């Protein structure tokens, strides 16, 4: 069995600036056998280490389909994320993973897929949207409602344009505050729910974003009649080891790193009540 504490060595293949504080790094595992064995699903994360600085968890923001590289999309907020932002092509990082559970996919076959996303919450959902779109015949419909604070905070700009023009997918954008040149919707992401036709009993909602956004969107969805098992989210609780040893990410009796990070609203509610 592999040592879960031992990072695999990877090389930065590409660095893409998404916004003023957020960058996507494309990583390639150095060892060919490790590359073949590394199999991940949308929603999973990995611990990424910058040598001499430390490690931090990041969701894998790319689909595994047809590629052997791994994307992480990183907002610069502190020590490890700043060190990551200083890396360039050819630099080395360590990877432990893939870790955690994943978003339901086969389980929701035939259903409408509704993605309600805020800011960097698009990072964990991007591979799920990519996979759903590639296999769109398996789902009744795919709708992406994406909001950010300002137009400058929208990540994956090129892909958003593609999604907006794609056949078989609806993609609506909004910003909390418009800046010069923005002609689209203004308002929090929940306001986009009024702009799409929803077959609520047949829809699974995937909700990711800042905690306050999740709280309001879940309230809106429950108000529209969504059941507690039809709302799925990913929690980004403070985490250290990623393998259920250090207790940093515990909520009630659950480890976000092992039992999650993907939870239904029903599970989340039970955990929060447990913690009170
Ligand atoms: C499962 C999971 C997936 C994640 N995916 C992503 C991702 O795709 N992209 C991304 O940019 N970030 C992601 N994060 C958050 C990321 O791990 C933190 O931003 C990172 O650990 C910060 O490390 P740092 O050393 O730069 O900051 P530090 O120097 O440790 O902290 C700087 C400040 O940020 C606060 N902080 C640190 N981590 C968190 C957190 N998780 N929640 C709230 N506040 C925090 C600290 O309290 C401190 O105030 C994820 C976290 C988890 C648990």
Identify the notable features of this structure and list them briefly.
7 helices, binds flavin-adenine dinucleotide, 30% strand, 15 strands, 7-stranded mixed β-sheet, alpha/beta, 23% helix, 276 residues, Rossmann fold, Elongation Factor Tu (Ef-tu), domain 3, 6-stranded antiparallel β-sheet
Let me know the number of strands: 15
Rg for CA atoms: 18 Å
Helix-strand string: EEHEEEHEEHEHEEEHEEEHEH
Overall 3D form:
globular
| Count of folded domains | 2
Which structural class best describes the helix and strand composition?
Answer: alpha/beta
Proportion of residues in β-strands? 25-35%
The number of helical elements comes to 7
The name of the CATH superfamily of the largest domain reads Nucleotide-binding domain of ferredoxin-NADP reductase (FNR) module
The CATH topology of the largest domain comes to Rossmann fold
CATH class of the largest domain: Alpha Beta
Q: Cofactors and ligands present?
A: flavin-adenine dinucleotide
Helix content: 10-25%
């Amino acid at each position: 069995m592999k040592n879960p504490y031992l990072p695999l060595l990877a090389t930065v293949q590409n660095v893409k600036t998404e916004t003023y504080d957020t960058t996507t790094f494309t990583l390639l595992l150095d060892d060919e056998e490790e590359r073949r064995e590394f199999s991940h699903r949308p929603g999973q994360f990995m611990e990424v280490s910058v040598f001499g600085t430390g490690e931090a968890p990041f969701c894998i923001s790319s689909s595994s389909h047809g590629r052997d590289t791994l994307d992480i999309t990183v907002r610069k907020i502190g020590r490890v994320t700043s060190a990551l932002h200083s890396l360039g092509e050819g630099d080395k990082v360590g990877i432990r993973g893939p870790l955690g559970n994943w978003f339901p996919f086969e389980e929701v076959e035939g259903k409408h897929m509704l993605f309600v996303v805020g800011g960097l919450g698009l990072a964990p959902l991007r591979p799920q949207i990519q996979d759903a779109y590639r296999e769109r015949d398996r789902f009744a419909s795919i709708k992406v409602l994406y909001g950010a604070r300002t137009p400058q905070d929208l990540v994956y700009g090129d892909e958003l344009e593609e999604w907006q023009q794609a056949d078989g997918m609806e993609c609506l954008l909004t910003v909390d505050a418009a800046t010069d040149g923005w002609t689209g919707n203004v308002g929090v992401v929940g306001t986009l729910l009024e702009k799409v036709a929803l077959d609520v009993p047949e829809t699974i909602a995937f909700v990711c974003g800042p905690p306050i956004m999740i709280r309001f969107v879940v309230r809106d969805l429950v108000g529209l009649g969504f059941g507690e098992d039809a709302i799925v989210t990913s929690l980004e609780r403070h985490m250290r080891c990623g393998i259920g040893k250090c207790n940093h990410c515990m909520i009630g009796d659950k480890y976000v790193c092992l039992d999650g990070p993907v939870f239904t609203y029903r599970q989340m509610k039970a955990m929060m009540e447990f913690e009170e």
